[in-house]
Write a structure and sequence with these properties.
Residues 59-175 form the DUF218 domain. This is Vancomycin high temperature exclusion protein. It holds the Pfam family DUF218. The protein is an alpha/beta fold. It has one domain (46-226): 3-Layer(aba) Sandwich (Rossmann fold). Helix content is 49%, strand content 13%. The protein has 7 helices and 6 strands. The protein has helices at 8-44, 75-89, 109-119, 136-145, 161-170, 187-210, 223-229; strands spanning 48-49, 59-63, 95-99, 127-130, 151-157, 174-180. A 6-stranded parallel β-sheet has the order 1-6-5-2-3-4, with helices on both faces. Helix 2 links the parallel strand 2 (59-63) and strand 3. It is elongated and about 80 Å long. The relative contact order is 0.17.
């Protein structure tokens, strides 16, 4: 039996419906992104400072980023660590919590951060490692729920900072933030990271609304408390 091709009028109706659905989908996505970015900016507004003007807090929370194959922090992560070291040296914080990805044995962001800081003269007893900061949400949630952090200065690149501060504040940490801009010279990577924040803001809102647990929660740890007791 020979099948008949759809009539031209039917094809046009299908095309119109498909175009309408595509337009509606794109509009819904645009609204979702805009609303998420607005939430991030509104929640973090008034809580972002320079290293010189930020109010003191007990802890600097440094969010993880790429580590090179030789085990050293890549430039974006090294810049964050330089900011945290400056905050410690100027008395803005009394301990540094480094939070990053150590899901695989051979890839260790917190360990690389510790080595970098101690090589720069930071006492090891002032650095606390969070090996399960697999994303910004997890780092903020674990800072509050695992390490008992109630107030912190979040340190990352400036394009990432509003989302990080917003998440931490929503997850129980009274957070301010200091952003690094020294790595803007890596223009392409900076642009990609900045553009990525639109989608990441949507994820942040869904994470907050879901109230999900971090990938790995674990028991309460006293590392930050111990570091703060050090002279």
């Amino acid at each position: 039996m020979r099948l008949r091709a759809p009539a031209p009028a039917t094809v046009r109706r299908w095309l119109r419906r498909g175009m309408l659905l595509a337009v509606l989908g794109a509009s819904a996505l645009a609204v979702t992104v805009a609303a998420s970015v607005t939430w991030v900016r509104t929640t973090s507004d008034g809580h972002i400072y320079s290293a010189e003007s930020v109010p003191p807090a007990p802890v600097a929370l440094v969010l993880g980023a790429k580590v090179d194959p030789d085990g050293r922090p890549a430039p974006f992560l090294a810049a964050r660590l330089d900011v945290a070291r400056h905050l410690l040296e100027t008395g803005k914080v009394r301990a540094i919590l480094v939070s990053g990805d150590h899901m695989r044995w051979e890839y260790d962001e917190p360990g690389a951060m510790l080595r970098y800081l101690t090589a720069a003269g930071v006492p090891s007893e002032k650095v606390v490692l969070d090996h399960a900061g697999f994303d910004t949400y997890d780092s903020c949630a674990r800072a509050s729920r695992v390490f008992g952090v109630r107030e912190a200065i979040v340190v990352t690149q400036s394009f990432h900072l509003p989302r990080a501060v917003a998440l931490c504040r929503r997850l129980g940490v009274t957070a301010t933030g200091v952003g690094d801009e020294t790595v803007k010279r890596y223009a392409r990577t900076w642009r990609v990271g900045s553009a990525r924040e639109h989608g990441a803001s949507v994820k942040a809102v869904f994470d907050v609304l879901s109230g999900r647990d971090p990938v790995h929660l674990g028991p309460r740890e006293t590392g930050v408390d111990d570091a703060l007791r050090q002279p």
